[in-house]
C-alpha cells in the first residue's frame, strides 16, 4: 500500500509541476481561453501549484516512504 501511495504521489506532483511550468506562469505553452481577470487567477493557481503544492506532495511521498504517520495525511491533503 505504501509503495503505491509513494509512487502515485510522486507522479501526481510531477504532472502538476509540468502542467504549471507549461502554463502561462513560466513558458506560456498552454494558453487559457478566458478573459484576462480569470486568466490571471489561473496564473496564480499555477504559481501556487508549482511553488507550494508540488513540493508538498514530494515531501509527503518522502514521509510516507519513511513510514511516518503524517505522510499519508499530507498526501491526502495534496
Number of distinct beta strands:
0
- Poorly predicted runs of 5 or more residues: none
Q: Tell me the helix content.
A: over 70%
Total domain modules: 1
Order of helices and strands: HHH
Q: How big is the Rg?
A: 14 Å
N/C terminus separation: 18 Å
Q: DSSP helix count?
A: 3
> Roughly what fraction of the amino acids lie in strands?
under 5%
User: What is the structural class?
Assistant: mainly alpha
Report the principal-axis shape. elongated
Q: Output mean pLDDT.
A: 94
Q: Mind sketching the topology for me?
A:
Blueprint: H1 2-22, H2 36-65, H3 70-77
Helix pairs in contact: 1-2, 2-3
Commentary on this structure:
The protein contains 3 helices and no strands. With 78 residues, the protein is mostly helical. It has one domain (2-77). Helix 1 (2-22) packs antiparallel against helix 2 (36-65) and helix 2 (36-65) packs antiparallel against helix 3 (70-77). The chain starts with a helix and ends with a helix. The model has no long low-confidence stretch (mean pLDDT 94).
What does this entry show, briefly?
This protein is mostly helical and 78 residues long.
Spell out the key features of this protein:
78 residues; mainly alpha; 76% helix; 0% strand
